[in-house]
Every structure is written in C-alpha cells, then in structure tokens.
Automatic annotation (TrEMBL):
Residues 99-198 form the YhfM-like domain. It comes from the Eukaryota. Residues 2-78 form the DUF4825 domain. This is Uncharacterized protein. It comes from Rhizophagus irregularis.
Length: 231
C-alpha cells in the first residue's frame, strides 16, 4: 500500500483496520479539500494510546500526502503531526520500505515508557479494585495488539494487561488475546483515583502518575500498618 494518497478511502480503511482491528474504530474521514491533508479516525475504547501512535506511523510511511492523523472519541480529539515525529525523532518516512523497519521504529519509540508496570496485588486495596474491575468488565470481541501494555497484574492464576487514559480503560486476559474487556464507569473512576491520588509500591519501585505520564524510580520502601511510603 505504499504510495497511497489521502483520497483513497479503500486503502486508508484497509490500513486502519489492519493496525487497530475492525473493533478499534467506528469510521474514518479524509481531509482532502485543503492542506494540510489528514486522516480523522473515530475510535472506540479498544484503541489505546500505543495503537494510535502505531497507526500514525503506518499512515505517514504509506500515505504520501498525509500530514496528520486525528483521533476522535466522545467529543474529544488528539492529533499526531507528521512533522512533529520527523523533527523530534529524526524519522525519514520516505525511506521506509518494509514493515520490519516500521515496527522497529515503533518499538524504539515505545520502549522508553518502561511498560508494563506490575501491580503488587498483595496490597489489599489494590487487589480489591482490580478484582472488581475484572469481575464487572464487559467482554468484547476483537483482537487487541498487546504490544507494550501499560500495566500488568495477576489475579487468581491469570495474567492481565491494562491500558488506561483519561477517557477509558481496556483490560485483556493474556491467555485470550482474541477478546478485550471494557471497564464500567465506576471501576474506571476507581482506577483513575487510585493512580492519581496514591503513590503505589509496585515490585520494589514506586510509581507516580502525573497526567498521562508514568514516573518510576528506584526506592527503598517502609511498610507501616499496611501502608507504604518512600524511605
């Protein structure tokens, strides 16, 4: 599909469905009347932040005149500009000739996030929140790209991956990557609260959430009556 143009709706639909899956988006729009030319993707909660970046990389490498990719969900939008990626990461999209090179670039851009961060579910309040989130989540069909999950945790002998942003959360059972789970609004709010208001001790490290960014640092930990704090 290399050499595609923004006006080719069929080719753009194929690129989007290949990267995020048919369950990952509702429909696309093509901005072709005026420059800059771009692709607008109306996404579902299955399209996590990492998949947005991956799709943008594919579009910029394959679509000659694509200047930006815009993601829309629940009235909010996020835009990834081709020029920003070229400038910040010195990516020459015209020189990319194969999928292996593209995936290598994607891996380099995402490995610095230190994913996944492993929840310590021996902490009772953490276990309770994650247990309820899993129990009340609604199973959805569709294959999820489980590359670079944000969080990982074990519950009752099963390993789960979790992605969360400021709008939604997606849960995947590692042994069943052909489906995903949409968290209830209540459990999504509980997870947001836990991540934004607490500093959690996770596998010997502490993690602090500021906005949508993760900050992890080595520390010694002291346990006081079931509560954890940095030394």
């Amino acid at each position: 599909l290399k050499g595609t143009y923004i006006g080719d709706n069929s080719a753009l639909s194929e690129i989007v469905s290949t990267v995020v899956g048919e369950q990952g988006y509702e429909y696309i729009e093509l901005q072709t009347k005026n420059e800059p030319y771009g692709l607008i993707v109306h996404t579902t909660p299955a399209t996590i932040e990492q998949l947005q970046l991956k799709l943008a990389l594919y579009v910029f490498a394959l679509v000659q005149n694509a200047d930006y990719v815009q993601f829309e969900m629940n009235g909010q939008h996020e835009v990834i500009q081709k020029s920003d990626l070229e400038k910040e990461y010195q990516i020459d999209f015209k020189s990319i000739q194969d999928e292996e090179t593209l995936n290598s670039i994607y891996a380099e851009l995402t490995e610095s996030n230190d994913y996944p961060v492993v929840f310590n579910t021996t902490q009772e309040h953490v276990y309770k929140i994650l247990f309820n989130a899993r129990a009340r989540a609604i199973k959805q069909p569709g294959i999820i790209d489980i590359f670079n999950p944000q969080f990982e945790f074990d519950l009752d002998g099963e390993t789960y991956y979790l992605w969360i942003n400021d709008q939604s959360a997606v849960l995947v059972k590692v042994s069943d990557s052909h489906s995903w789970y949409k968290l209830s609004n209540e459990d999504f709010a509980e997870l947001q609260k836990m991540l934004s208001e607490e500093i959690l001790v996770i596998t010997g490290e502490i993690i602090e959430i500021k906005g949508n960014r993760l900050y992890v640092e080595e520390t010694d930990a002291i346990q006081n009556n079931g509560q954890y704090d940095s030394a």
